[in-house]
Amino acid sequence: MESTRQAKIARLLQKELSEIFRRQTAKTQGVIVSVSAVRVSPDLSIARAYLSIFPSDKAEALIESINNSAREIRYELAKVVRYQLRKTPELSFFIDDSLDYIENIDNLLK
Question: Which CATH superfamily is domain 4-109 in?
């Protein structure tokens, strides 16, 4: 069960990570990255961010690139949230394929 503090920190991280990815994807034409959810561990040391990437055929390569640059993203995030959080959690990124799953179900129902 997620505590109130975990939920608040997750919302803060989701908002700021979305802004970081918005600035970075403005440079890359045709790829949209959105942060669909962030889950924070009970000790607030690890954050798992779930990313929705469009178009989905570039998702695997992009998520690997994002995970390789997780330290730089954490540094950017720490600069933004330094007054709200004492310690910025370690970041790990995962693909959120729920939109693809929903689209597949819609196609099956048609």
Answer: K homology (KH) domain (3.30.300.20)
Task: Report pLDDT digits (tens) over 38-48.
Answer: 999 999 999 99
> Any idea which residue has 């045709």 for tokens?
30
Find where tokens 């959105």 sit.
Answer: 34
What digits encode the pLDDT tens for the residues 89-100?
999 999 987 777
What global pTM score does this model have? 0.85
Query: What residues have CB less than 8 Å from 2, skipping those under 6 apart?
Result: 10, 39, 40
Name, in order, each residue with C-beta under 8 angstroms of 56's C-beta and a sequence gap of 6 or more. 97, 100
